[in-house]
Design brief:
It is built from 20 helices and eleven strands. It is an alpha+beta fold and 477 residues long. It has one domain: Cytochrome P450 (Cytochrome p450), CATH 1.10.630. The strands form three sheets. Strands 1-2-3-9-6-4 form a six-stranded mixed β-sheet. The chain is globular and about 60 Å long.
């Protein structure tokens, strides 16, 4: 029997999550123990009704239902509490725009993230990675999350603007994002506008952070307009605003919205992925040993990785993939039904909010046995089953899949290889793993680790049989 027939014959189950509080719904559970709350939902069905404040919403708990939603963006469009709030930050950019406008926006930005451009960014990534970690004091504590945020912000600003943001502006972006991602999360799980119009310290911090991020983008655009044209993403946007090439001109607001969308999505999630990888490796010494073995073999003599090394950094890429499965920074997303429709046999009204969680799907034991275990071997060539590949969606799926998914992966692989080639990061004495604080993204936001210099590997020729890469890891392109 084919898989398609089997899926057609599947009987979906639906239910309602218990513990609804008046007015706040499940917002308290979401805020206090978000991952535990998510993990409790599949026991109530494949599609589970929850409350976001007083509003009804439906959580997708099965990967095939998630694909049904994501592969039909005309019925399940970007929207719901998350994207309504993100619109305040990103305007009508590629991430938040509705489906009718998406194709033209994606066509405009896609060339900068094609594979040929991604490999061209390799030296840029490794230069910035070396710059960030070069001055770390041996044996001393270093703020890993802060350093990874500086790295990812400098990389994406060079891709977008040709130049890195200065250190002061980079720190401002980091601090503003801290306030914004927490504020966005609260506004998503308890979407009651009157609560966020109150002049509380948290609300004031959130509004100040939004205002400052917009000001940083406006300053970058204004500076470019006073200077010469450049062949980068901002140059592409400004050319589109002039109507170059014969296409209808985009507005100045669209230039702003695209730029802030790409800057913020390219900075925070990357920083959390890299910080999460170093934290996980420190707690799993065998995975760390195999990573170091691959780096010592592929990058003999401690040289910096380049684009030609990517096919040989097999285990390094597995570590990145497993980090994205185990601790995906993007952990909760919303969609909205554009019309009355049916999902899992449940009739949903037009305007219904549907949620899906990469964290929940990635920790489903039916797809990933022993899901709490960090195991990069899951992603060795030929190992993951089709069902596991479908359940793995850190960058979403379908036509609204992240524009820069391959760029993000290559950046993480090269940055991890560069830093881990020189340093071994250890948790400080007394370290206790704690549940992550909730935000629109998830990850170690204030990770501090001790760094130990790794001895430079003796120069040796790379094995001609690529199957030996990474301690007998099978190579794949």
């Amino acid at each position: 029997m084919s898989r398609a027939v089997a899926e057609q014959e599947r009987t979906w189950t639906t239910g309602t999550a218990p513990g609804i509080f008046p007015l706040l719904g499940h917002g308290i559970a979401f805020y206090r123990r978000p991952l535990a709350f998510l993990s409790s939902l599949p026991a109530h069905g494949d599609l589970v009704e929850i409350r976001l404040g007083p509003q009804r919403a439906w959580m997708v708990c099965h990967p095939e239902l998630a694909h049904e939603v994501l592969m039909d963006p005309r019925t399940f469009d970007k929207g719901g509490p998350l994207y309504d709030r993100l619109g305040k930050l990103m305007g009508d950019g590629l991430v938040t725009c509705r489906q009718p406008a998406h194709r033209d926006k994606r066509r405009l930005l896609q060339p900068a993230f094609r594979p040929s451009h991604v490999t061209a960014y390799a030296d840029l990534v490794t230069e910035e990675a070396e710059s960030v970690c070069r001055a770390w004091p041996v044996g001393q504590a270093v703020p890993v999350t802060e350093a990874m945020m500086a790295l990812s912000t400098r990389v994406i600003s060079r891709v977008l603007l040709s130049d890195t943001l200065d250190d002061t502006t980079t720190a401002e972006v980091r601090d503003c994002l801290t306030d914004v991602v927490r504020g966005l999360f609260v506004r998503t799980v308890v979407p009651i506008d009157v609560l966020f119009r109150l002049p509380t310290p948290a609300n004031r911090r959130y509004r100040r952070a939004l205002s400052r991020l917009h000001a940083i983008i406006d300053a970058a655009i204004a500076q470019r307009r006073r200077g010469a044209d450049r062949d980068d993403v901002l140059g592409t946007l400004l050319a589109a605003a002039r109507g170059d090439g014969g296409a209808p001109a985009i507005t100045d607001q669209e230039v702003h919205d695209h730029l802030i969308t790409l800057l913020l999505t390219g900075a925070e999630t990357q920083a959390l992925c890299l910080a999460g990888a170093f934290s996980l490796l420190a707690r799993h010494p065998e995975a760390e040993r195999r990573l170091h073995a691959e780096l010592d073999s592929v990058l003999a003599g401690g040289r910096r990785p380049g684009p030609d090394d990517l096919p040989h950094l097999v285990y390094t890429r597995c570590v990145v993939s497993e980090t994205l499965r185990h601790s995906s920074p993007g952990w909760l997303f919303t969609r909205v039904a554009t019309r009355e429709t049916e999902l899992a046999g449940c009739r949903l009204p037009a305007g219904a909010t549907i949620l899906y969680s990469p964290y929940l799907l990635h920790h489903d034991p039916a797809s990933f046995p022993d899901p709490e275990r960090f195991d990069p071997d899951r992603w060795l060539p030929g190992v993951p089953a089709v069902a596991q590949r479908r359940a793995m969606m850190p960058f979403s799926a379908g036509s609204r899949k992240c524009l820069g998914d391959e760029f993000a992966t290559v950046e993480a692989v090269l940055a991890l290889a560069t830093i881990a080639g020189h340093w071994r990061l250890r948790h400080l004495p007394g370290y206790v793993e704690r549940p992550p604080r909730p935000g629109i993204t998830m990850g170690p936001r204030a990770l501090i680790m001790a760094c130990e210099a790794r001895p430079q590997a003796a120069a040796a020729p790379r094995a001609s049989d690529s199957r030996t890469a990474g301690d007998h890891v099978v190579d794949h392109t």
